[in-house]
């Protein structure tokens, strides 16, 4: 019995030692391992670039992303999905995670975003305002109200006094934009950053009510992050001058 206990203790010590080695960083100070980031769909282009740059500056550290609607991501985290970092498109969706006491620290705002109307190239229907989206026969798509882009769109539409009945509600902003790109919708209310990322595949129409529906983007490390050192390093990188430059290039506003 004593010998078996000693053997079990030795196996435990070895496994702990191996675990420490696998999670430790490289000799250059890199945190090492993989950091898993759950990020709002509207962050796909900018965060993908930030992830590539982060990996270049931290050899031996990888970044894995899950891009989706913030509401779906928050539900996954609350449901126990292993995550290191959560970057949401609104404080209200981040609150679902903080209310469950799942973040290590208070979230910090790293960017802001405004809405725009996406139309087919050339804006064939001559859309110039939110009220134009109420025109008979016009196919308009919105994000579902449970996700930040949908909540912001509803707020802007109310401010404009525009009564719009959408052809469909989409679960994230990329899905709404895709409807326009595939000619399955005439217009969509999305973020200006998504219009910019789409290049010449869509046209963008700004509207003044967007100023009343600006979304703050918070980021936080999860309390049970599998790779806390890499999570902290990634968040610091997003908040760094280089990170802000990438976000600004994508069209995000400074916090």
TrEMBL record:
Coiled coil: none annotated. InterPro entries: ModA, ModA/WtpA. SUPFAM superfamilies: Periplasmic binding protein-like II (SSF53850). Belongs to the bacterial solute-binding protein ModA family. This is Molybdate ABC transporter substrate-binding protein. Residues 1-20 form the signal peptide. NCBIfam families: modA. Keywords: Metal-binding, Signal. The keyword Signal applies. The gene is modA. The keyword Kinase does not apply.
